[in-house]
Design brief:
With about 240 residues, this protein is mostly helical. A three-stranded antiparallel beta sheet has the order 1-3-2. Strand 2 and strand 3 form a beta hairpin. About 20% of the residues are buried.
């Protein structure tokens, strides 16, 4: 498709699209002839994804570019934003797994390689082996960063906190995710189309992550107070 078709499909002006190109956020178009540029569905998807990241996650173009390159960005980045970023990197590189070098994390998180291997062993993430070294997807790299921040906060081996403790979350996440998927499919069967269902999921998952996080926070402090206030067990 030509630029005018791309503008119609995405609702984004060509000058803005050219800014995305200059920032390296979307792949270069095919150029079969001089002064001829052909765009495809991957450009449509990438441009729409950038707009969503800007509007829903409040990320700037500089932050999007930094995260796509595997670098840290200021502020929290939600799981749904990371999913979109992975799609963007895949579009840009033509690959399915946008890699972040484990070695690039070591300056900020000295135990990153050790933690990544432990988390891979218990099934939380996968390590991508490349000729340039071991890599992680954006979301997997963020998991390693999160545990690195936990270490900095004092959750380390001195208190018997190791990445293995996170294995609990695999079963818990699988249970919640299975229930959510089953319930959603039961409710929409024969009622709405695939596109509408996909739009609902895209909106709902970040909201439910926040909802579940608040429930966990309330439960933590409720049990914390109850356990702290309970009398010690008699021997």
């Amino acid at each position: 498709m030509k630029m005018r078709d791309l503008e119609i499909r995405t609702g984004v002006h060509r000058e803005t699209i050219r800014v995305y190109l200059r920032h390296g956020l979307i792949p270069e178009p095919d150029r079969p002839h001089r002064n001829v540029a052909d765009y495809s569905e991957k450009h449509v998807s990438a441009i729409i994804t950038i707009r969503q990241l800007q509007q829903e996650s409040r990320l700037t173009l500089a932050q999007i570019g930094a995260l796509m390159d595997g670098n840290s960005a200021q502020g929290a980045v939600g799981a749904s934003a990371l999913d979109k970023l992975e799609q963007l990197v895949a579009h840009r590189s033509g690959a399915d797994g946008p890699p972040v070098s484990i070695a690039s994390l070591l300056n900020h998180y000295p135990h990153a390689e050790e933690d990544a291997r432990t988390l891979a062993r218990i099934g939380i993430l996968a390590i991508i082996e490349t000729e340039q070294g071991d890599m992680l997807s954006l979301s997997s790299a963020q998991i390693v960063r999160i545990w690195g921040e936990m270490r900095k906060a004092g959750f380390d081996g001195n208190l018997d906190y190791t990445p293995e403790i996170l294995g609990f979350y695999i079963e818990a996440a699988d249970f919640v995710g299975r229930w959510e998927a089953t319930t959603f499919l039961q409710r929409i069967a024969g009622r709405i189309g695939v596109d509408e269902a996909a739009g609902m999921v895209e909106k709902a998952l970040p909201l439910m992550l926040d909802f579940f996080g608040l429930l966990r926070q309330q439960a933590f402090f409720r049990h914390f107070e109850a356990i702290r206030s309970s009398p010690p067990a008699k021997e």
